[in-house]
Design a protein that fits this description.
- Helix content is 42%, strand content 15%.
- It is an alpha/beta fold.
- The strands form three sheets. Strands 4, 13, 14, 15, 16, 17, 18, 19, 20 and 21 form a ten-stranded mixed beta sheet that branches. It has an eight-stranded parallel barrel with strand order 5-6-7-8-9-10-11-12, surrounded by seven helices. It has a three-stranded antiparallel beta sheet with strand order 1-2-3.
- Helix 7 packs across helix 8, helix 10 runs parallel beside helix 11 and helix 15 runs parallel beside helix 17.
- The relative contact order is 0.13.
Length: 660
């Protein structure tokens, strides 16, 4: 019988696959915080209490959107998860306040920069009412948006960070006279003089905040954004000068808030302790200078454990939300008690921890390529056929690769691997010199990849006893799954800062994954790929996935993407915003509360100063000229223009029904 290689399930996979295996494979219980799990049908479910069976089926939602004409890629925003994040944040601080007999209060503030989408801010305002949550802005556009969004909510705290010009500060002063509870935070001394002048000009009493530059620095990827080199806040010398200015102008009683920038995604609780201790002492010192402070804003920094590792790494952290709240409350209270100073209201700006869990990006796979398809065509008979057709002996590397292939099943693993590697290198060298035909090179490639596939199956069957020399086989043999998304638009942090997000298929999880693959997007850029995934001990370069089925759309989800990703995205290759569906859960059922359709091609052309209407007219004229010159028939011209016009009005991403 002719020997051929065909792909099979890796020997290392459980003989009987279960839902529990899927949960373990993708580490869902480690990073999901209870918001995601897998149901008995093998589909990912989402929502508060998902791990207790109260979630809704993501695959069902995607199919429901398809029925409404909304195709992947699509961003699912779960308002109920966002609501729950606010609840657990406030409960953590309420528990810490009670445990430490803290006499002040707690106020959460949402930094608009984390996700500026209208629907997200509106939900934060709605859900935060019962907790008295506030908003933080860092620019003039954000300030103008928030002032409009909070009409009818005069008591909602608005903290104004960022560098400010005259118009920014005058808007704040007039908003204060309007009755808004608004606090501009001084970033440099020139802002203070201008603010006081404007307040005097408009006969307004404005609450003032100040951000100080701490010596303590944060930890993690953004650790350098705090500390002596930070661009944020006043140094101690400048702080003293500010206090003198306020005293001289009779405005010291208007200083109500002390602010610091701790950094973003703080990974180490020790850095947090140092920052809170230092800012607490600054608070005490300012109070001793006669200021009647009400708020201590410790900024953001509360991390999200994207990997579930509970470790000091860029995409993780070594503390819990409860530990974070306890350290802040205890340290501030202890420092104030030691100096006889009243406890302030603690303010946090933990936007990442509020929003990250609430969004899931889902996209479909368009196709695949990789060593597996090449290996499946390997057949020793091809060597004989080549010799017969060419009339010459088989090249030596082909002979050597055939020997490695035939001994791969029961031969020495390492020796066979090294033989195959050497023979392929020789074949490539001979081809580059013109001594090997294209047909011969193709046969060599088939035999090489088939040999590696067999060796990888044997390596997996050995488990921990597998030879270290074969450790690179999984990455070498990974396939590429081509996916209908733009990394640059929807997952910019993956490209820019190597952020790790949980990635996994959203269905077929009752089946064992038999393929390892990297994910490539639809942009014409080599950086448009995902090839870093969460592993047990280290970053893995491939993701376990299922083989694609003819006629079935395969969906993959990227989780915890609710912070920063939407507003940082760019228009690489003019791929625009994905569709966004706001999902609400009631009685175990889901419904679409709002649907924001993604950018059309006309819209993204407009963003780059093109005029789609001019384009359409020009194209119509060109089609008519082609008819006159008899290069196109009238029907062909009509079809081309219709395709062009429909394309301008269509989604920037690929239509799953038309994809190859």
């Amino acid at each position: 019988m002719t020997k051929t290689w065909s792909p099979s399930a890796p020997q290392g996979v459980h003989a009987t696959w279960s839902i529990d295996d899927a949960v373990e494979q993708y580490r869902i219980d480690r990073w999901s915080n209870g918001y995601f799990s897998v149901n008995e049908r093998g589909c990912v479910v989402a929502g508060p209490g998902a791990e207790e069976g109260r979630g809704v089926d993501l695959h069902e939602i995607v199919q429901g959107l398809n029925a409404r004409g909304i195709q992947a890629p699509v961003l699912l925003r779960f308002a109920d998860i966002l609501d729950d994040r606010l609840r657990v944040l406030h409960e953590a601080f309420a528990g810490a306040i009670q445990e430490n007999d803290y006499k002040g209060g707690y106020q959460s503030v949402y930094p608009v920069k984390v996700n500026q989408q209208h629907e997200v801010i509106a939900e934060i305002i709605e859900f935060g009412k019962r907790f008295g949550s506030g908003l933080e802005v860092g620019s003039k556009p954000e300030l103008l948006a928030v002032l409009a969004l909070t009409i009818g909510e005069p008591d909602q705290l608005i903290i104004c960070n960022g560098f400010k010009d005259r118009q920014y500060l005058e808007t704040v002063v007039l908003a204060s006279k309007l009755g808004r509870r608004i606090i501009p935070v001084i970033e440099n001394l020139s802002e203070l003089d201008l603010l006081l002048d404007l307040a005097e000009q408009h006969d307004a009493s404005v609450s003032i905040g100040v951000r100080v530059k701490l010596a303590s620095s944060g930890s993690g990827r953004w650790g350098a954004s705090a500390g002596d080199s930070s661009k944020f806040g006043l140094a101690t010398d400048e702080l003293l000068r500010m206090l003198t200015t306020l005293r001289d102008r009779g405005a010291l009683d208007q200083l109500k808030l002390l602010h610091c920038h701790a950094g973003s995604q703080m990974q180490d609780v020790r850095s947090l302790k140092q920052i809170i201790a230092e800012i607490s002492h600054v608070y005490v010192e300012i109070s001793r200078h006669g200021a009647t402070l009400d708020y201590l804003d410790v900024g953001g920094g509360l991390g999200v454990d994207y990997t579930g590792a509970r470790a000091v790494s860029d995409s993780s952290m070594n503390y819990s939300l409860e530990e974070f709240a306890s350290h802040v409350i205890y340290r501030v209270g202890a420092v104030c008690d030691a100096e006889g100073i009243d406890h302030p209201v603690i303010v946090t700006e933990c936007g990442r921890a509020m929003t990250a869990y609430s969004s899931v990006l889902i996209f479909n796979v368009l196709g695949t390529n990789g060593p597996g398809a090449i290996a499946a065509r390997a057949n020793p008979e091809s060597v004989r056929a080549y010799v017969e057709s060419s009339g010459e002996p088989a090249p030596q590397p082909m002979v050597d690769l055939l020997a490695a292939f035939e001994s791969a099943v029961d031969g020495n693993l390492v020796e066979c691997y090294h033989d195959a590697q050497e023979a392929r290198e020789v074949s490539l060298h001979l081809y580059s010199l013109g001594y090997l035909r294209l047909e011969a090179r193709a046969i060599c490639d088939q035999l090489y990849w088939a040999t590696c596939m067999i060796l990888e199956e044997r390596r997996q069957s050995l488990g921990d006893d597998a030879p270290e020399a074969l450790a690179d086989l999984p990455d070498l043999l990974r396939d590429t799954y081509f996916c209908n998304l733009s990394i640059f638009q929807s997952l910019p942090d993956c490209w820019a800062v190597d952020q790790l997000f949980p990635v996994m298929p959203i269905h077929r999880l009752d089946e064992a994954p038999t393929v390892r693959a990297a994910l490539a997007d639809v942009t014409c850029d080599s950086d448009g790929k995902l090839d870093r995934f969460i592993g047990d001990l280290a970053v893995e370069r491939s993701l376990p996935l299922h083989q694609l089925r003819e006629g079935e759309t395969y969906y993959i989800g990227v989780f915890l993407v609710g912070a920063y990703q939407e507003t940082l995205g760019d228009l690489h290759n003019l791929f625009g915003d994905a569709h966004a569906a706001h999902i609400r859960i009631r009685g175990g059922r889901w419904y679409i509360e709002d649907l924001v359709e993604g950018d059309t091609i006309s819209e993204v052309l407009t963003y780059t100063q093109h005029d789609p209407a001019v384009f359409a007219r020009s194209m119509k004229k060109d089609c008519e000229r082609a008819v006159q010159d008899e290069r196109l028939t009238v029907q062909e011209a009509r079809n081309l223009y219709r395709f062009y016009d429909e394309g301008l009005r269509g989604y920037t991403y690929l239509d799953a029904g038309d994809a190859p």
